[in-house]
Design brief:
Blueprint (H helix, E strand, L loop, with lengths): L4 H30 L2 H8 L13 H11 L4 H7 L14 E9 L2 E11 L9 E8 L14 H12 L7 H23 L3 H5 L8 H15 L1 H20 L2 H4 L2 H15 L15 H14 L6 E7 L7 E6 L12 E4 L5 E4 L5 H14 L5 H36 L3 H29 L7 H22 L12 H24 L3 H6 L3 H40 L1
Antiparallel strand pairs: 1-2, 1-4, 2-3, 4-5, 5-6, 6-7
Length: 553
Amino acid sequence: MFATFRQAMAWLHTWFGLVLGFVLMAAFFFGALSVFDREFDRWAIPHTRFAPQPMPSFDTVLRPALERMQPAPEAVAAMRPRVDGPLPQRFDTVAYWSAYTTHRGPVVALFAGFEVPSAKHAGEQIHAEATVDPRDGHVLPDDRLRIGSGFFYPMHYGLTLEWKNLGVFIVGFSALAMLAALVSGVVMHRKLFRELFTFRPGKQRLRSVLDLHNLTGVVALPFHFFFALTGVLIFAATYYFPVGHTQLHALHDHAAAQEARQTGLPHQRAGVPAGLADVDAMVADARARWEAAGKAGDVGFLLLMHPGDANGYVSVYRAGTDRIALVGDGVHYDAATGALLREDPPPGAVGRTAEFLAGLHLQHFRHWLLRWLYVFGGLAGAACIATGFLFFVEKRKRQHAALGLQGARVVDALAVAAVTGMVLSTLGILDAHRVLPEDLAGRDDWEKRAFWATWLLALLHAGWRSAPVARGLPNPAWREQAWAIAALALAAPLLNWLTTGDHLLQTVSMRAWPVAGVDLALLAVSGIAALAARRLGRPGRVAARAGLGLRHA
């Protein structure tokens, strides 16, 4: 079929990149935004615009909020088919309580699980969650979409397609295809070192696009390969191959019971009521142990298993922001007495490798320069895919025009929607977050609808304006959507000022960098998009005049 191995790799690289590049474009772009997901949250939700706080007192702040928590009506409705008989009005048997905080977010996320009586499957649980202000413990409203952690981040790895975890599987398959595309790209481009320093913007458009595609691919090649690989590995055990949870129930339960015996951490409730000792004292003891071991003492995660039961225990986990590896360094206590049960031992070689790979991908660390490198790496991946789309279209559109084919026109319209349309939809949800009424019912759903509606309009506009591509000319939708990006990006900080009063000069002077940083980034996007639109306008007019001259000749 192919004369040489390199030709086979070129075919693989081209068609894997074209067919799955639209998914990978979203994964890279929203992955770059997710590096600062908590900062987007604080920009989007004004009542979280205060300094990050440490894990608050359990007894005075967290416990009252946890005791008030109950599953949402939607969760109760989803549980009804999985029980025999009616559900209780209130769930009182707590399976676990947990609290999570991060050095980049000022709020504390609370989670609770409750045992479900009369459940068809033993061990069935129903869950609840809430967000509290750590300064006084009051529950924050949950009708405002956390755009960063609640939308951009899930979009990065699951496309927000939650049915049967379909989006996670699509992204995982695309990541495997990306690994193949990277290897085939290396085989195609034997002179990688030369292409690392080759970019000729003054050459013809096709040559410049290919140079930029090669440059962004080669410069960030280790980044692209590592994140595609670790993304697949991180989700493999949970989603792709969850054999223990889905097919080997008995073996999984046996392993859990065996682990409980080895660690001394009970797997099930004893059914004997018991009190709860001073959790704050346990947290203080864990911090002292970490400090004695030369580790940062920030508490990132607090877990109470079976509270109110004789088998209850409390686990205190370290935030681990002082290192790249995703460490926990858990210290576990008897919930009723406060006695130390266990300190997690240092992991072995395999465990340390897993912690490092997971930490490098999930970036819970405090290293700001490395975070910005992640952003640039993600945007480089998006640029590599975008220029691949452009090269595909530019290389074929004149040939397709001569043959009367529409393939290049279709790909170009999809490319416009995947590149500028995706940026427009991102700006659309940010703007909608500011203009929708505060008391609008289902406000978070309307914000998501604004995102998808903007993206759909961008796709329709790209298809409607793509007729020139069938004649071998540029699609004016690129330029027009670039102007739209400039307008929407400029509108977002202005709307933030008008609706919250936090204008850029104020947030900079107050060193409220999460809010100021998002505003500054939006202004930079507006300026770059305006320059790109002007630049796209010049060759478009020249090409149009050339095409007109050919028709008159």
